[in-house]
Sequence to fold (128 residues):
Amino acid sequence: MTTVDEASSLLRELASPRRPGEYVKQAIERAAVAAGIEYWRAFDLWYAKARRVEEYEIDQITDAKRRKEDAEARSELRDLRLRLLRLEARMSASDADFHRPEIDAAREQMRGLGGVDRPVASAGKVKR
Fold:
């Protein structure tokens, strides 16, 4: 894969997933802003029209893609913690003694995710 093809592929990954009804122009603009490059440069890279790609451009696009993936991972982890807290709260509300093994297992999973061991009373109040 040439450097131009690599840059094109990275920009497309950076802009994905495309929103419903979103034009390609908007996806290119979003990728350009995220990578910190000019729109027309991103356009040329997107369609592999550029004759060459500077190393700093590849670095900028790669860094933007990494930041996007990190943000997505944090969001997914936050959502998972919230789901576990809600599950714990529901089980405690119905019959805490009966669901004690499942509640303990959920707390153990949260510890593995870097969550905190909160009392059930504060399970509905999640800090963001």
Summary: Confidence is low (pLDDT under 50) at residues 115-128. The radius of gyration is 22 Å.
